[in-house]
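TICKET: design request
STATUS: open
ATTACHED STRUCTURE:
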């Protein structure tokens, strides 16, 4: 094995640092897509939270606005229904499951 000239080694380090800097600057300037949630979450709710689902005049309604309003308005009722369904399903064999709420 031969030795590597230090000039070429420093040139390689400089190129790698420059590439790293350029990638960071590109991301900072907003050219890379911004992901607000993991892809599996986006798929389960129909897309990214910043997607516009409706416009009213010049006002945009995003998926985040929609889900935040739905959560505020129906969270307790939905949780109650899910608990009730789980209790009914688990009670079919005659046992009575314990329920712990964390809201």
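STATUS: resolved
RESOLUTION: sequence designed for all positions
ATTACHED SEQUENCE:
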């Amino acid at each position: 094995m031969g030795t590597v000239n230090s000039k070429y080694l420093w040139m390689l380090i400089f190129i790698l640092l420059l590439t790293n800097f350029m990638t960071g600057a590109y991301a900072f300037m907003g050219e890379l897509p911004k992901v607000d949630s993991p892809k599996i979450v986006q798929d389960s709710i129909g897309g990214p939270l910043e997607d516009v689902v409706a416009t009213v005049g010049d006002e945009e309604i995003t998926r985040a606005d929609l889900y935040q309003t739905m959560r505020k308005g129906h969270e307790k009722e939905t949780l109650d229904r899910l608990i009730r369904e789980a209790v009914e399903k688990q009670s079919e064999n005659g046992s009575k499951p314990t329920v712990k709420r964390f809201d």
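CLOSING REMARK: Residues 1-32 form one domain. The beta strands are 52-56, 59-62.
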